[in-house]
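Backbone-to-sequence.
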């Protein structure tokens, strides 16, 4: 890094302010960690938390579930897969592997604070990165916006989501990538390799844009690279990717297999040119290209949910060419604009062509829906463009009071962010705290009191609440899958089976099927929508 003594007074004040802010951010982002809830609002968090703990205890990412062999592998929470007679992670292993390794050394308390720590560091490194591309002011105010960017904060507060940890690592890796072009010191190359390797292990699918970005930056700056130091970068990559691939092989039977996909060698790539092309297109655009879904999702998650952030940045792109051809941009800014435009198009098409229904209200546009986390890199890296557009527009409206107007609009962005973070009806701090400290805990206590330890609960979307205290059958949607329904009689013969919350329109279908198999629902409590499956004779 640049020596603090070589910085200007303004740079030192900016850096000191952001360091203090980073400390403050750590405590804010650790809000849920300090509450020690250990129950989560999503199946991905539940899985990552469980397998992190499993790795700390056993150094493995497997847990046996022999009952699955006779019931078509239905006994598992969502975000869990089944391999043989074991439950395994569906998602990437990098996060539980890294968290679990630190948990073995320092104790499992630390796993709840790793995500918030890296997120708070990312706020400071975001400034350091942008300062090498834009002006000091743009870098500083972009870092301030990142500190309270609603979706970034949402995932920074949830350490067992991959996405928040991943984007924090990308920001830090981005700084070291730009820095190694200037310093040429071996430790910059090593640190870049370490952070990049960790990021790729956390969300391996992002290699499809992350690796081309790195290669492009290095190619465009080929004369600034000290080639011998690239060996340190390679060493850094190996430090995290070698154990990642080792545990991939141990867990899934192949280093390139995962819970999402089978091995690349089983995917048809080796089956000739046609099979190779089909397989590659399937990996590049796994959801195809659906224009209607793309434009609907683009509007919902660029303007409807995130207009003050990403929406304004989109308009900043409209003034890009005018600024560039008037020769007011440096090559670094020009590259950033083009890179961000390309990344936006790619991620929007890649994820925007698929329709995710994660809530009963299928029209809901929420902070916690998949699109928001998949497009998190866009919401983060758009921030300097948002500021540039604000300055451009405000200078046209009232140039003599530009600072005043900019300050007012900046304050409005902060207020909007605080409202989303605290008062969002689904995911605001107030809602989540109330739900998990009162309602969810009360529901869990009731179930633990009224079911034996070997019980299996047909829990649907509430699987995350009861696992791992009880075995669960998890599923998404407003209808019980046929696979679950036809295995209920078999499941009944193996363990006590309970059912929670019979959804509207499902009662007739469920009762008919159970009656045909000599079974019936028995309500546990008149005040609870919770049932035990029993024989009719009982």
């Amino acid at each position: 890094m640049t020596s603090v003594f070589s910085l200007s007074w303004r740079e030192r004040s900016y850096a000191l302010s952001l360091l203090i802010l980073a400390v403050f951010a750590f405590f804010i982002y650790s809000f849920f960690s300090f509450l020690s809830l250990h129950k989560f609002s999503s199946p991905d968090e539940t899985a990552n938390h469980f397998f992190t703990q499993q790795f700390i205890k056993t150094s493995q990412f497997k847990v046996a579930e022999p009952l699955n062999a006779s019931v078509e592998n239905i006994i598992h929470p969502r975000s869990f897969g089944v391999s043989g007679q074991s439950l395994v992670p569906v998602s990437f292993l990098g996060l539980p592997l890294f968290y679990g390794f630190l948990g073995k050394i320092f104790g499992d308390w630390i796993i709840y604070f790793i995500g918030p720590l890296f997120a708070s560091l990312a706020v400071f490194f975001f400034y350091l990165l942008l300062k090498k591309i834009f002006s000091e002011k743009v870098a500083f105010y972009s870092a301030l916006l990142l500190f309270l960017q609603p979706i970034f904060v949402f995932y920074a507060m949830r350490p067992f989501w991959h996405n928040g940890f991943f984007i924090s690592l990308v920001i830090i890796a981005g700084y070291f990538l730009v820095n190694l072009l200037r310093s040429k010191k071996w430790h910059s190359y090593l640190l870049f390799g370490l952070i990049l390797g960790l990021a790729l292990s956390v969300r391996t699918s992002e290699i499809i844009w992350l690796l081309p970005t790195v290669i492009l930056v290095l190619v465009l700056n080929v004369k600034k690279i000290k080639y011998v130091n690239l060996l340190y970068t390679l060493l850094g990559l190996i430090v995290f990717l070698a154990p990642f691939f080792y545990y991939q092989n141990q867990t899934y039977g192949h280093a390139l297999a995962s819970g999402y996909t089978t091995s690349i060698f089983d995917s048809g790539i080796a089956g000739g040119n046609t099979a190779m092309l089909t397989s590659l297109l399937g990996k590049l655009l796994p959801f195809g290209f659906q224009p209607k879904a793309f434009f609907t999702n683009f509007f919902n998650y660029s303007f409807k949910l995130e207009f003050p952030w990403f929406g304004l940045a989109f308009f900043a792109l409209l003034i890009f060419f005018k600024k560039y051809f008037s020769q007011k941009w440096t090559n670094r800014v020009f590259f950033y604009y083009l890179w961000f435009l390309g990344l936006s198009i790619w991620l929007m098409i890649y994820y925007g062509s698929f329709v995710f229904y994660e809530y009963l209200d299928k029209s809901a546009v929420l902070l916690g829906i998949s699109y928001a986390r998949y497009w998190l890199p866009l919401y983060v890296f758009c921030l300097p463009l948002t500021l540039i557009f604000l300055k451009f527009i405000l200078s046209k409206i009232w140039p003599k009071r530009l600072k005043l107007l900019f300050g007012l609009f900046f304050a409005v962005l902060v207020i909007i962010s605080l409202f989303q973070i605290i008062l969002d009806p689904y995911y605001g701090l107030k809602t989540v705290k109330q739900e998990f400290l009162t309602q969810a805990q009360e529901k869990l206590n009731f179930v633990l009191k009224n079911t034996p330890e070997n019980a299996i609960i047909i829990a649907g979307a509430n699987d995350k609440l009861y696992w791992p205290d009880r075995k669960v059958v998890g599923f998404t949607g407003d209808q019980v899958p046929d696979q679950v329904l036809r295995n209920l009689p078999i499941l009944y013969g193996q363990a006590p089976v309970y059912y929670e919350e019979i959804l509207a329109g499902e009662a007739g279908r469920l009762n008919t099927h159970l009656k045909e198999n000599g079974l019936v629902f028995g309500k546990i409590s008149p005040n609870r929508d919770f049932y035990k499956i029993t024989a009719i004779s009982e």
